[in-house]
Write a structure and sequence with these properties.
Distance between the termini: 19 Å
Shape: globular
Strand order of the largest sheet: 15-12-14-13-17-18-16
CATH topology of the largest domain: Uridine Diphospho-n-acetylenolpyruvylglucosamine Reductase, domain 3
Radius of gyration: 23 Å
Strand content: 15-25%
Number of helices: 14
CATH architecture of the largest domain: 2-Layer Sandwich
Largest sheet: 7 strands, antiparallel
Bound molecules: flavin-adenine dinucleotide
């Protein structure tokens, strides 16, 4: 192992920070009071510079951790003192939207929200939407194959990527910024990098597919006592509203009541929420027809006693308020200062039973203060925030085991969308077979034989 003089590299990339200059940097947006430990931070402005950095690091066995918007929830951007950080934040251009081909090309450091806005200005639409869209960057979103609130209708990030440019750990640039919808000329390599959490290469640019912007938006909050009624409502809404049903999200009652409690600034639009509170989004074309159809679907569900109450939101400001309730993870976090986040996938018909059993088991554990379930129920993806008295490793492990153990039996997943990072690695075997993990390790060995890029993420 050589002992590289990092100053040699930092001098090549203007604006770099040495280890002594990184006090204002951090490894996660929620850890701004914990200074970053690393050998330095480089801010490439071009793909060529990313390649120069990786060539140097490859030659000198220098470990690298890639930083995007730092919103991941699995320790993916944590660093050690002997690692170099490559931050893509200066490569933040959103290139012109192409309305004829309905595509947008963006650099890896572009904030997702800016890409969405650029598309909307041309009456086009990229339906990726989640709470961190104002901070998450294109490269991070692709590397985590992010999902969010509209996956049920539109799929995850993978569905929206037409072309990628990537720099491999040895500095080789793979440029495939095609705008084609169809290309079966051999193995589609871009998919190897989507969701790879930066262990195979650094994403530097991407081409997204766009669709026509919906003209109308309507939202509703419904409530029901029974999980099978919730599923019945989802089925009926999907049948009657069709492609206009774009979001069907769930908060358990205690999660909803915590977010809309008196001390928060939200006002609950539902008088007496039952066990489950459902958030519905409908995107369409015709204001009056869409509004009527949504109200009719609710009325039908009410008559059949699948739901017990509903509130409707038509104006943009009302809808914004309504969806803030669904997305306000910060209030839950504040309620549970020591906490663990989960992001699991379960076959949709088993969510009610499994989550309710899990809640009971967690609450009977000494040291657990509260459990707040919510999530993308139509995708079978539930999040849990578990509040606890302290961060003792024993309690943390006990909680992990209660949440993860039932998943293997029902062919669920320990990560529906956030990935594995460093935090969930010990549990990967519950979601993936030994053969699959072996292939992942083989790919890592192929792309990064020196194990210098995002080492230790997903697999060892
Ligand atoms: C409030 C909140 C709500 C969220 N809601 C959702 C949700 O609904 N759905 C969802 O899927 N996620 C959600 N997330 C998680 C997170 O926002 C996503 O995973 C996001 O895509 C991460 O993007 P980022 O730019 O912040 O990446 P980072 O956190 O910076 O990085 C994530 C991983 O990708 C790697 N990486 C970053 N940039 C690159 C690059 N250019 N090339 C290669 N590797 C790279 C990093 O090394 C790291 O391993 C949420 C997070 C928060 C805080």
């Amino acid at each position: 192992m050589s002992h590289p003089n990092i100053d040699e590299l930092l001098a090549k990339i203007p604006g770099s920070l040495t280890a002594h200059e990184t006090q204002s940097r951090f490894s996660h947006i929620w850890k701004t009071d914990e200074p970053l430990h690393c050998k330095g931070v480089v801010f490439p402005r071009t793909t060529k510079q990313v390649s120069t950095i990786m060539q140097w690091c490859y030659k000198n066995d220098q470990e690298v951790v890639v930083h995007g918007g730092l919103t991941n929830l699995v320790g993916g951007t944590q660093t050690q003192a002997d690692q170099l950080v490559v931050s893509l934040e200066k490569m933040n251009r959103v290139h012109a939207v192409d309305p004829k081909n309905r595509t947008v090309t963006a650099e890896a450091g572009a904030i997702l929200e800016n890409v969405l806005e650029a598309a909307e200005k041309q009456d086009l639409f990229l339906p990726l939407s989640f709470g961190a869209r104002g901070s998450a960057q294109v490269g991070g979103v692709i590397s985590t194959n992010a999902g969010g609130l509209r996956v049920f209708r539109y799929g995850m990030t993978r569905n929206w990527i037409l072309g990628l440019e990537v720099v491999l750990p040895n500095g080789t640039i793979i440029e495939n910024l095609k705008t084609l919808r169809k290309d079966n000329s051999g193995i589609d390599l871009k998919h190897l990098f989507i969701g790879a959490e930066g262990i195979l290469g650094i994403v530097t640019k991407a081409v997204f597919r766009l669709i026509e912007k919906p003209q109308t938006r309507h939202s509703a909050i419904l409530t029901t006592n029974d999980f099978s009624n919730l599923l019945q409502t989802l089925r009926y809404f999907d049948q009657t509203l069709g492609a206009r049903l774009t979001g069907f999200e769930l908060l358990w009652e205690n999660t909803y009541s915590t977010i809309t409690a008196e001390e928060t600034h939200y006002k609950s639009p539902i008088q007496k929420p039952d066990n489950y509170v459902i958030f519905v989004e409908m995107l369409g074309k015709n204001v009056e027809r869409d509004s009527n159809d949504l109200q009719d679907a609710c009325a039908h569900s009410f008559e059949h006693e699948w739901i017990s109450d509903a509130a409707f939101f038509d104006s943009a400001s009302e809808q914004e308020e309504c969806w803030k309730i669904r997305e306000d993870v910060a209030t839950l976090e504040a309620h549970a200062p020591h906490n663990q986040h989960f992001d699991i996938s379960i076959p949709i018909d088993q969510i009610g039973t499994i989550i309710n059993n899990t809640i009971q088991q967690l609450l009977s554990l000494d040291g657990v203060l509260g459990v707040y379930p919510f999530g993308h129920v139509a995708d079978g993806n539930m999040h849990l925030i578990v509040g606890k008295q302290n961060d003792s490793p024993k309690l943390t492990q006990q909680i992990n085991e209660i949440v993860y153990q039932p998943l293997a039996e029902v062919k669920g997943s320990i990560s529906a969308e956030h990935g594995i990072g460093l935090d969930k690695k010990p549990y990967l075997h519950l979601s993936r077979s030994q053969e699959e993990i072996h292939i992942m390790k083989g790919l890592k060995q192929l792309f990064d034989p020196k194990n210098i890029l995002n080492p230790g993420r997903i697999v060892d």
